[in-house]
Amino acid sequence: MELNEEQIHRYSRHLILADVGIEGQQKILEAKVLVIGAGGLGSPILYYLAAAGVGTIGIVDGDVVDMTNLQRQIVHFTSDIDRTKVQSAKEKINLLNPDVQVHIREERVEADNALEIISGYDFIVDGTDNFAAKYLINDACIITKKPYSHAGILRFNGQTMTVLPGESACLRCIFPEPPPPDAVPTCSQAGVLGVLAGVLGTLQATETLKYILGKGDLLANRLQTFDALKMEFRNLKIKKRVECPVCGESPQITSLIDYEQTVCDLKL
Amino acid sequence: MRLTINGKEETVSDVVNIADLLKIRGIETPEMVSVELNSEILNRVDFETTQLKENDQIEFLFFMGGGQTRG
Ligand SMILES: [Zn+2]
């Protein structure tokens, strides 16, 4: 794909980077990335991938924009309340960068659609906010050997990791099973400082672009944690486990599982 | 006993195994934690039987991504 004059202008700060250049920008323009969840993490992910010129961006989300989302989900505006998140996000991306083809799916990822949803994409970004979806995405990516970026945020903390199936540790290597729903008392103390979504989502977008470019060291076999109160980043070495239930030597999990989702009702 | 916990050196007493350590650290929801001992993730069922020794390095890894709020 040849860059046209407008693109040479638009991506000039990429083109002058030795590790991107015209060749790298062409890779970005040809890349197909799926972002699951157009919420807190998804917002900065979508903005930066769109601004960078990722040629095809898929967005999956079954929710509509709610007033309580706006504190952190910066792709949605006050005027978007009650609109579907995928429509609202698509509109912003189109305004930001008309080079990007946006494919939207207004639905939740579930065991019976996950494999089909992720097929056709080069890299998957998990921007969801619940364990059920996170395990589903992990297992679907391991089973179909798709690289993906995981992240989670809670209160003043966040963590992220890039998973290269077959090569690096996956979510189940660290947490073999989701916590039992009744053991998520974190609901009572849930909540999150909005900017955490920005910090972690931006790291996920960075990893996505590095993967597309084939540059640098991905956050594979490492868990990056961030504590905003201490303003501390830590990088923990993680190993792929031979006894991992999905990516280990004799996996017990070979098809997708729908877990019960824990949803907290906010009582004010 | 001197341990390195989440990257910081600490001296703890009355701690024999991982379950003890979770208790004295006030971790109320052990179901939400994975424990890495000297770079190996432990099986949850081994928390009570895994003995700690001088200079062990322990990382508590917390589940994140629950607590979805419905406004
Ligand atoms: Zn694994």
What's this model, at a glance?
The complex is a heterodimer of chains A (268) and B (71). Chain A has 268 residues and is an alpha/beta fold.
Task: Explain what this protein looks like in three dimensions.
The complex is a heterodimer of chains A (268) and B (71). By secondary structure, chain A is of the alpha/beta class. Chain A has one domain: NAD(P)-binding Rossmann-like Domain (Rossmann fold, 3-Layer(aba) Sandwich), CATH 3.40.50.720. Chain A has nine helices and nine strands. In chain A, helix 5 links the parallel strand 2 and strand 3. The longest helix of chain A is centred in the C-terminal third of the chain and has 20 residues, at 194-213. The relative contact order of chain A is 0.15. The model of chain A has no long low-confidence stretch (mean pLDDT 94). With 71 residues, chain B is mainly β. Chain B has a single domain (2-62), classed as Ubiquitin-like (UB roll). Chain B is built from one helix and six strands, in the order E-E-H-E-E-E-E. Chain B is globular and about 35 Å long. Chain A binds chain B through residues 66-69, 128-131, 134, 151-154, 157-159, 173-176, 178-180, 183-187, 190-191, 223, 234, 236-239, 241, 243, 261-266, and chain B through 6-7, 28-29, 31-32, 34, 36, 39-41, 43-44, 59, 61-71. Strand 9 of chain A pairs parallel with strand 6 (68-70) of chain B, so a sheet runs across the interface.
